[in-house]
Design brief:
Structural class of chain A: alpha/beta
Number of helices of chain B: 19
Number of domains of chain A: 3
CATH topology of the largest domain in chain B: Rossmann fold
CATH class of the largest domain in chain B: Alpha Beta
Radius of gyration of chain A: 23 Å
CATH superfamily of the largest domain in chain A: Nitrogenase molybdenum iron protein domain
Strand content of chain A: 5-15%
Distance between the termini of chain B: 26 Å
CATH architecture of the largest domain in chain B: 3-Layer(aba) Sandwich
CATH topology of the largest domain in chain A: Rossmann fold
Radius of gyration of chain B: 23 Å
CATH superfamily of the largest domain in chain B: Nitrogenase molybdenum iron protein domain
Number of strands of chain B: 14
Mean pLDDT of chain B: 90
Low-confidence stretches of chain B: none
Helix content of chain B: 40-55%
CATH class of the largest domain in chain A: Alpha Beta
Distance between the termini of chain A: 34 Å
Strand order of the largest sheet of chain B: 1-12-11-10-13-14
Strand content of chain B: 5-15%
Number of strands of chain A: 14
Oligomer: heterodimer
Largest sheet of chain B: 6 strands, mixed
CATH architecture of the largest domain in chain A: 3-Layer(aba) Sandwich
Structural class of chain B: alpha/beta
Mean pLDDT of chain A: 96
Shape of chain A: globular
Helix content of chain A: 40-55%
Number of helices of chain A: 17
Number of domains of chain B: 3
């Protein structure tokens, strides 16, 4: 950095350079923020909580609340029982949330704190007021990634709260995955267009994209309400978007309350959105709304207008596994050639699925789980690309190699649109084309010789 | 103004004695203690403290030994600039996995260091311990010793396990680590008029500005710790005649050790604001006991102030009487900000820090106008309450406070790592004034409920 990476592939056995992932607790914190009236609680040192809040704030440009057990050396020796009990007492006394969602950290995991027992004792001691909820999930930072943490928290929310009354409700559950508030909003809009009542969990829209209303709202309007979460056990079906972030929780709900789980991919691009719409349609009283059909038509129209610019373009995609799997498919729909696809997270499904997708069309594509940006940079030095699609951490590579760069995923620390515009659904795909094709055009406008500089593109 | 929103927010009973008012009797501000478990504290951990202090040493290798998060959240987030090597901006981590936690991470650490040192041949390496390393009992020091011997470079463990305390404790660990370099370099060509700058991190190029002033006065700056830092400079910084310590929390212990072991006196300084910047320069001139130097200093100060006064005056006219809230990491910065705000006509209505001690808070009480709220280790709810109650026009803080200020319709200036403008030195004062002016005077606030209300209820100029 900035140009410290060499083309020569470095043999690495023990080292992570410029990670394409971060740790579990931040994912759990993000998921918890998608419950209405929830205080996420980090059971560990102060720094974890502070880092996660700062990082989420940089991405969303919104206040992010969470409390911490403020571990000290004493707690690290004797366990975090006293800290968590005191924390719960304080949280309910002063911040008065409806629910506290505790996640662990590497520290409390290694100490071996038994959260359910601590919570049970806290309740017996009166630290948790009547009618208030405390749930927890285990998120050791040395296992998985932020996506795992997100998935674990969603599974725990369901495990703790979803109920089955025996009386089916005319609604479906949607687990949207580790996506933006704008994406969750878009998913709700699609459901509404089809007339399908849906419980979206988690739902950070109107939590992390709130308006400026002159007040500091500790618990903004949005978030899945507790009654809605409880009712998930009575839903007709669950649609889980994304293998890594969402399938686990959906399956656990199916096991627990026999709500059939529909396992889909993130609805990015035409086919994936079609699949989602198709799945919802079975529960739609009215069928696919004209508005949605028109939107799809407009997307395909834009794809046809722009296909010549995508044809055979070599693209590198890096990010969270569910996003990369979906984005690669959309790039193929556009005629581009995804040559590198990496994620920092672990999971064989990533490679299996992407080989399935890419082997027939881009047989020499390099696909790798548990990879990092350093590695990707080395590949790019050996085989350049025309476009890079990644989170903000791709920007060093983009600058050094002068590659048009589109930011998608988490985190985005240096641009603004992700907070407002979805990438899921037909509308999201239109936005992605807009970003990608403009990035290609901008480079051409900046760099082409004058005689090639064109007014009309 | 006592807004209903503010009145509805209460204060944690245990936090009441961490809040005081200037000009009123009462006990000292309770501080220097751990955050209450369960509070939404704005504080971080020891690791964070160590990492921000050492990270700007640009030609050293910085390896975070722990699970990935600690490295990920500290990857290139602080605009500490380097005029040369950019190695320090990479994120190196051992990315500890479950097996490492069970069987120990020493071997992995050794391998990671070998790979890195072979590839980058750094002048030194720092290995940061995270919470988990303290628990699983890796002997990081032993690994570092082994690698030091193998490669003949200093490989230095930083005892920065997060749970060891707040950022302050991390600063101490960082100083301990950096001090292992000190005293190992050649000091022969160091002039009699030489200083070190301690506690400046070259955010947005600030160290370069300060260095420039001293060089104009013919004073050699041997090392900056750690802004645009170099291992070789730190090795020989014990040859300087005087240490200037900025950012009281982070580097004072290093200065004290340099005084104890090498007889180098130190002066606590701040480079923020005209008064403090000038005081720092005059302090050095006085130290070297040279009337000519003092004259040259006066000349520099006069020149610099003259250059910025016309614009500063204009800004002051616009900002006169407006109120600010200050919530920063260290108290020394808070002192400077109170003074700098005064320079541009603004009153500090709320001032708080994450790491101030009793003396700091006593000083704040003495220097602020009566009625100013003084808080230690605050949280968003409290800060929002105070901002509304005091009806401030500006908030000065860090990344976590910015969106809160905006939600309330209050202007903001980042005086933390994420500042984009150099705020130190004379030019920094002007940048600061411009930034404050731009945010406070932005037309955007007219569309926020608070100002919209104010506009509606304000008497119109041409009203009969």
């Amino acid at each position: 950095m900035l140009n410290g990476t060499t083309a020569e592939i470095a043999e690495r056995k023990a080292l992570r350079i410029n990670a394409a992932k971060t740790c579990q607790p931040i994912g759990a914190m993000y998921a918890s923020l998608g419950i209405h009236g929830c205080m996420p609680h980090s059971h560990g040192s102060q720094g974890c909580c502070s880092y996660h809040r700062s990082h989420l704030t940089r991405h969303f440009k919104e206040p992010v609340i969470a409390t911490t057990s403020s571990f000290t050396e004493g707690a690290s020796v004797f366990g975090g029982l006293a800290n968590l009990t005191q924390a719960l007492r304080n949280i309910f006394t002063i911040y008065n949330p409806d629910i506290v969602a505790v996640h662990t950290t590497c520290l409390s995991e290694v100490i071996g704190d038994d959260i359910p027992t601590i919570v049970k004792r806290a309740r017996e001691e009166g630290a948790i007021p009547e009618g208030k909820l405390v749930i927890h999930t285990n998120t050791p930072s040395f296992v998985g990634s932020h996506v795992t943490g997100f998935s674990n928290m969603v599974a725990s929310i369901i495990k703790y709260l979803a109920e089955k009354t025996g009386e089916a409700r005319n609604q479906v559950n949607v687990i949207p995955g580790f996506v933006e508030p704008a994406d969750m909003r878009e998913i709700k809009r699609i459901c509404a267009l089809l007339g399908v009542p849906a419980v979206v969990l988690p739902d950070t829209s109107a939590v992390l994209d709130g308006p400026l209303d002159g007040e500091y709202q500790m618990y903004p309007k949005g978030g899945t309400t507790i009654p809605a979460i409880k009712s998930m056990g009575d839903s007709l079906a669950t649609f889980a978007l994304g293998h890594f972030a969402s399938h686990g929780p959906a399956v656990s709900l199916e096991v627990k309350h026999q709500v059939p789980a529909g396992l889909l991919e993130l609805p990015i691009g035409v086919a994936a959105t079609d699949a989602f719409v198709q799945a919802l349609r079975a529960y739609s009283p009215s069928g696919v709304a004209e508005e949605l059909e028109t939107e799809r038509g407009r997307l395909v129209d834009m794809m046809s207008d722009m296909q010549q610019y995508f044809h055979e373009k070599r693209v590198a995609v890096a990010g969270d596994p569910d996003h990369v799997i979906a984005l690669v498919q959309f790039l193929l729909e556009l005629g581009a050639k995804p040559v590198y696809a990496i994620t920092g997270s672990r999971g064989n499904h990533f490679e299996t699925r992407l080989h399935e997708i890419l082997d027939p069309v881009v047989p020499d594509a390099i696909i790798k789980q548990s990879a990092d940006f350093f590695e990707l940079h080395q590949w790019i030095k050996n085989g350049p690309v025309d476009l890079l699609v990644a989170n903000t951490y791709g920007k060093h590579i983009a600058r050094v190699e002068n590659i048009p760069f589109v930011r998608v995923g988490f985190p985005i620390l240096d641009r603004v649109g992700h907070r407002f515009y979805p990438t899921v659904g037909y509308a999201g795909a239109i936005r992605l084309i807009d970003l990608m094709v403009n990035a290609l055009f901008d480079k051409k406008d900046r760099e082409c010789p004058e005689e090639w500089f064109e007014l009309v593109m | 103004m006592n807004s209903p929103a503010a009145a509805s927010i209460s204060i944690l009973p245990d936090r009441r004695d961490s809040i005081a008012r200037a000009g009123e009797a009462g006990n000292a501000v309770a501080c220097d203690r751990g955050s209450l478990a369960g509070s939404v504290t704005q504080r971080a951990c020891a690791f964070c403290g160590s990492r921000v202090v050492l990270y700007p040493i640009a030609d050293a290798l910085h390896l975070v030994h722990g699970p990935i998060g600690c490295a990920a959240y500290t990857w290139d987030i602080r605009g500490a600039q380097s005029s040369g090597p950019q190695l320090f901006r990479n994120s190196f981590s051992t990315d500890l996995q479950e097996m490492d936690v069970i069987y120990g991470g020493e071997k992995k650490l050794g391998r990671a260091l070998r790979e890195l040192i072979r590839r980058h041949q750094p002048k030194a390496a720092f290995v940061y311990s995270t919470c988990i390393v303290g628990l699983i009992g890796d002997d990081v020091s032993a690994v570092c010793r082994e690698l030091s011997a193998e490669f003949s470079i200093p490989v230095i463990p930083v005892a920065s396990e997060g749970f060891k305390g707040t950022k302050k404790d991390g600063y101490q660990a960082a100083c301990d680590a950096a001090y292992r370099l000190v005293g190992t370099g050649d000091t022969r060509d160091i002039s009699d008029r030489s200083i070190n700058l301690l506690g400046d991190f070259n955010i947005a190029g600030e160290s370069w500005i300060i260095r420039g002033y001293f060089e104009r006065l013919g004073i050699q700056v041997v090392a900056t710790l750690t802004g645009d830092g170099r291992v070789d400079d730190i090795r020989r910084c014990h040859g300087a005649k005087l240490n200037l310590v900025q950012c009281s929390g982070s580097m004072t212990s290093l200065a004290k050790r340099l005084e104890r072991d090498h007889g180098i006196p130190f002066q606590r300084v701040s480079f923020f604001g005209i008064e403090d910047m000038s005081a720092a320069l005059y302090g050095v001139a006085t130290f070297f006991e040279d009337p000519l130097l003092r004259e040259k200093t006066s000349e520099l100060v006069r020149e610099e102030i003259e250059r910025l006064m016309p614009e500063l005056r204009e800004i002051r006219t616009a900002l006169e009487g407006k109120k600010a809230a200050v919530y920063v990491g260290g108290a020394f910065k808070a002192f400077s900000l109170v003074r700098a705000l005064r320079t541009i006509g603004m009153r500090t209505a709320i001032v708080g820090t994450q790491t101030g001690d009793r003396d700091d808070y006593d000083q704040l009480r003495a220097m602020c106008e009566p009625g100013t709220l003084i808080v230690d280790d605050s949280n968003p709810l409290e800060l929002a309450k105070f901002c509304l109650e005091q009806d401030v026009d500006l908030f000065i803080g860090g990344v976590k406070e910015r969106p809160i200020a905006y939600k309330l319709g209050i202007g903001f200036c980042d005086h933390n790592h994420e500042r984009k403008e150099a705020l130190a030195g004379y030019v920094g004062m002007l940048n600061f004034a411009r930034e404050v002016y731009a945010s406070v005077m932005s037309p955007v606030w007219n569309y926020t409920p608070r100002r919209a209300l104010r506009l509606r209820t304000a008497p119109r100029e041409n009203e009969e």
